[in-house]
């Protein structure tokens, strides 16, 4: 890159200035991770827009790491975001407005330029595909009090939620992280995700109609879109992406459970994809295609970091062990690919998603594959359940 072009990017892009960062701290922004050395003071040339920043402190030897803490920001052109390490609480804190402005001016004069790592612009495309529906409004409506997302504040919150066997294992792994300990200063309410009912029962509806409603979740989708998202399809997709990023980069179990609920809701619709919400489903399938494609990328450069407790790769066992995604995808693929008439874009992206899952996970979606069987274990989450949830009130 030419020197003049680089300087323009430095000036136009946002900067994350991190003061007093201990050595061996893992610092992440979007799909990129940095391992702090003695002179590391942050990241420059950050494209304006929404980003996810996350970090994990280590012990002195750099071989044990604390649970990740992450937060979303919307960076303006040339903005300088200044954070200072608080050694007592082992987290980044904001400076006073006056002190923050003083450091911001120093950054704009390039006084910290040599101590700032450049944002890898060749990875920006991947981040945009993971976050293109996340807006400032999405962040403000979902983020927890204080903005910080961390598993430390989720142990009680997710303890009473029904989880599959694999999710229980994940919960234990995250809860028992080497540095994990109750944090009295962390907000206990977590993120403000939209409540997604799994099944419905409406007053005055016949048993057969109720069964049909629960087999086709279009009615639930329409109700939630109207009442929770003000009719905005993109707002729903923004929450889907927020939850996935908070899970993948922030290692939030609460976020994974919300992502799973939203994916299960959308893949459980049969009327909406083909008739009433085709555009929404095209955008949705495209969104989860990139979530899984980018999430499954194995970057050899991250191997040492992953061994130390931080990774931005998706654990295949989460999706494979309990078969929730495989089961739902198989039905959805049959619905779209066997339809006599279907939107061309929806058909294209559905085929791409099927090929990705077949290639990456080795899943077989042929009609005679074993997943066709309707044998339901006693604790099978796909077994029919009736729950009284009145969506009209």
UniProtKB/TrEMBL annotation:
AAR2 C-terminal domain location is: 193-366
InterPro entries in the record, alphabetically? AAR2, AAR2_C, AAR2_C_sf, Aar2_N, AAR2_N_sf
Please give the Gene3D superfamilies that the UniProt record associates with this protein. 2.60.34.20, Aar2, C-terminal domain-like
Q: Which domain of life is it from?
A: Eukaryota
Task: Please state every residue range assigned to the domain named AAR2 N-terminal.
Answer: 13-144
Q: What Pfam families does the record point to?
A: AAR2 (PF05282), AAR2_1st (PF20981)
UniProt similarity note: Belongs to the AAR2 family.
Annotated protein name in UniProt: AAR2 protein family
Which species does this protein come from? Solanum tuberosum
